Amino acid sequence: MPTYDFENTKTGEQFTEIMSMKEREKYLADNPHIKQLLTRMNMIAGMPKNDDGWKENLARIAEAHPNSTLADRHGGRTSKAAKTSAVLDKHGVRKGKYSMDL
User: Which of 56, 66, 69, 92 is 20 to 30 A from 75 via CA?
Assistant: First the structure.
């Protein structure tokens, strides 16, 4: 459930409550001397780090789909395979199962 910060306008007391949005609306309607304080949201800076298990999973999927975007980013292709793919892209040759049989 969300946490809300409130202020009692009569006493100036500030407090925090945990309640659902529906409960918050009812609480504010029943207590006109209470106002909700605006607070900043808690944000996580940056991207979360991927552990080795997830990286292995991405590499396994990339190996199963060698012509995918995922394979370009996470696959363990050889330099020859990467250069061949770049030449095929340059000349607009469709990548597929039999693209090397030209």
Answer: 92
